[in-house]
Design brief:
- 80% of the residues lie in helices and 0% in strands.
- With 494 residues, the chain is mainly α.
- The chain has a domain at 266-427.
- It is flat.
Amino acid sequence: MKKKSGLRYLRYKNLTNELAKYGYEYTVKKAFIIYGMIVLMAAIFGILYKLELKYIATIGIIGVLLSPMVIIQIMKGRYHTTMFSLSNSYMEQFLYSFKRNRTVLNALLETATIFDEGIFHDILEKAIKHIQYTTDSEDPEKEALDIIGEFFRCERVDNIHSFAIAAQRRGGDVSGSIALLTKNRAMWAERISNLQKEFSLVKRNITIALAATLLICILPLYLLGGNLNISSMQLCQISAVVLIGSCMLIYVKADKKLCRSWIEKEADSTCIGKKYIQVRDYDEVKEAKVSKKIAMIPAIILIGGFLYFKNFAILIVGIVVVLFLLNQHKIGHSLAKKKVSKEIEKQFPNWLMEVALLLQTDNVQVAVRKSVENSPEVLSHALEKLIEELEENPNSIEPYHRFLKEYRNPDVQSAMKILYSLSSGNAGDVTKQVEELIERNNSLMDKAEKLSQEDKIAGMKVYILLPSLLASFKLMMDMSLLLVVFLKNLNFGM
């Protein structure tokens, strides 16, 4: 699908429609206020950097072009924060109500009394009426919960709904499972709150870095005056516009990265499934032959260069290059395996949670088979192999033991042993064992999501470094101009 340009939001109608999605009414009056602030900002920068009118106008135009994205991101950020808070409160209340009432309808009726106004109340009412008045559906409760799930688009909400449907059909005491799901929700909410604080801190640091850059780059214009005044020079003026425009662009880009949904699952764009197959099908002998072919030409050039120039530096550099090329297949395999291993560590708990919820109504093999449809890409191939092996040897521990064994993850192996115990009927109290599985999964998910959060925060820190590069560019330009002016004055003085 072709990505639409952000410039389309310069049109008032498009911007108004986009902001309406986040519950913000964008009026003509607000538009004039915003554009007035942009003109004021351009004027302030123009005065501080001693810019000519045409350069002040250029800054104003850049501000106008970027302003729609800033407005959208501010409103989107508020919307996502509200949706996180709302989904967290809903899950907490729904689990509590389901524990008391044991039916989806009564749980929703009680939950609707808590959320007694706003759009979400209308969604709850729609779901309740669907259960009460729909007569031509085989599963009105599931369809009603899907209405709520579509509103949030949150995997955890969907998991809780699946659990409620399964528990209602199965019956029995579900208080232990609800307690563990409640704990899972609380741990998730705490992680997201901590991530919001981290993102807020990163955004503050980016803003401070940009402000410091703009402030520092003003100093050469004021510290030296008289014959060494460079503010009126065209290169100085143009570089100031480039600096200010770049700072504005960095802020918008960083804000866009920081503006994210806290509840929606992010699409995987890493092609991790292909990388898993690459690691699985790795043939060291075959890849070593390819590496030898690749290294052959550089080796010939190395020998020829050394014999011709008699230079040991060429020999040393050449040996390093050739050794790297001879072992590039091992290095590539090692890096790919580490990446896949880290992704498994992140995604396995999500899959395990779905299996644990399916175990409320199904046996282990059926639960594993059903889980494949929504399984993470990094696990799908291994799960298909597991299912094939279980069909051949349904009572054997070996399929469970071999599952992702090559990645040597103790958490995965431990969870698979519990699944085998459940499948073989040696687990004693099945309900208690399932609850133990969910509790183990809670700690795994906490660990996995903390890893994911660390990756997100690390990726944002580059935006803190970019302003220093801009400052270096601007200061080098100004120092060069000062040197030119100084040398000219020096020649005139002579």
